[in-house]
Amino acid sequence: MQELKITRPDDWHLHLRDGDALKAVLPHTVRQFARAIVMPNLKPPVRTVDDARAYRDRIIAAIPEGKKFEPLMTLYLTDNTTPEEIIAAKAAQFVKAVKYYPAGATTNSEFGVTDISRCDRVFEAMQKEGMPLLLHGEVRDQAVDVFDREKVFIEQYLIPLRTKFPELRIVLEHITTADSVQFVLDTPNIAATITPQHLLFNRNEIFKGGIRPHFYCLPILKREQHRQALITAATSGNPKFFLGTDSAPHSRDHKENSCGCAGCFSALHAIELYAEAFASVNALDKLEAFASFYGADFYQLPRNTEQITLTKSTWQIPDQVSFPESELVPLWAGQELKWRYIEN
Ligand code: NCD
Ligand code: ZN
Questions:
Q1: Which pLDDT belongs to residue 236?
Q2: Looking at the domain assignment, is residue 182 inside a domain?
Q3: For residue 151, is it within any domain?
Q4: Sequence-separated (6 or more) residues with CB below 8 Å from residue 53
Q5: Is beta strand 307-316 parallel, antiparallel or unpaired with respect to 326-328?
Q6: Catalytic: 57?
Q7: CA of 130: how far to CAs of 96, 125, 278, in Å?
């Protein structure tokens, strides 16, 4: 096979930032994807429908001329989010989900939820309105081993939440473990996004010959057995698993730092990275549904109709791309990839 044609994909988990950073990264996503679920962890976060409308306007203004792209907005859940805001979000139509970050768990999460039980009235409204809840599924308890925080989140928070709100539609974002795969498979009304880094690498990658900050993201890469479970899930053809890059740009100086930020930048070459992962297990025939169908189906949106083309030709991921006052190092910079996306 020399050419792969698939329906244009969507990115169901993306960080676009704001201001000049937004202007720098958005064109990369627009080049490959038709739509994206845009994360609300700005500073301050996108907490209300009005915040989301204003942020959406800024994103639309930053779309390169002549290009089409639809930002799908999310609200950042806090201890103070009201059921009324959920009703307003549903009515506004451009808000597609609400994002839960445990306070202090990751980048710009200081406004997140301190106690999930405070959100019951909001979850009730979301269940009733059919508003999906997107979970950063990690406990923030520093006493819990960093490699176990996703598993413990499921046990301590997600199972009780599922029992209390059985009809609430949930996406467990950027899953990293075999335990999460199994939980999603066994539980109704829950789906999961999977990032390219969690499909391609295990945790050894962070420590190969020295510390490699560009492979550091949250949730952190896990053991090989978990990576294999994710590959199996992504290529299984099960609609509960779909593409979400979690492309999370941080400038080089913020990554290569004595306390480096979490996040991998993959918007530049996202579909090629997924193609590499799927090709590694001979499952390129499963890429289209994972990248372009199942996410749209979960969000009850129409599937895209336009096609994109990937050609089999070796190319090298650049060492850096431009970013305000610094640069961004793309995930797996310098690596040769076998598949290349050709812009129409
Ligand atoms: C994200 C970011 O930088 O915004 N970082 C990451 O490692 N994924 C935040 C997040 O989604 O945890
Ligand atoms: Zn994220």
A1: 98
A2: yes
A3: yes
A4: 73, 92, 94
A5: unpaired
A6: no
A7: 10, 8, 32
For ligand 1, atom 5, name the residue with the nearest CA: 263
In the DSSP assignment, the letter for residue 51 is H
Q: How far is the CA of 245 from the centre of ligand 1 (A)?
A: 11
pLDDT along the chain (344 residues), means of 10: 96 98 98 98 96 98 98 96 98 97 76 87 98 96 96 96 98 98 98 99 98 98 98 99 99 98 98 98 98 99 98 98 97 98 86
- Is 215 within a domain? yes
Structure tokens at 303: 């599937």
Domain hosting residue 154, numbered range: 8-301
Ligand 1 pocket: which of 11, 13, 101, 107 to mutate (most atoms within 8 A of CB): 107
Q: Look at the block and give the residue holding tokens 């704001």.
A: 18
Confidence (pLDDT) at 327 = 98
Residue 333 lies in a domain: no
Q: Establish whether residue 38 lines the binding site of ligand 1, counting it when its CB lies within 6 angstroms of any ligand atom.
A: no
State residue 44's pLDDT score: 94
Q: How many domains does the chain have?
A: 1
Q: Select from 246, 247, 329 the residue to mutate for testing ligand 1; criterion: most ligand atoms less than 8 Å from CB.
A: 246
Q: How far apart are CA 19 and CA 127, in angstroms?
A: 34
Question: What pLDDT, on the 0 to 100 scale, is given for residue 115?
Answer: 83
State the pLDDT at residue 279.
Answer: 98
- pTM of the predicted protein model: 0.97
The CATH number of the domain holding residue 102 is 3.20.20.140
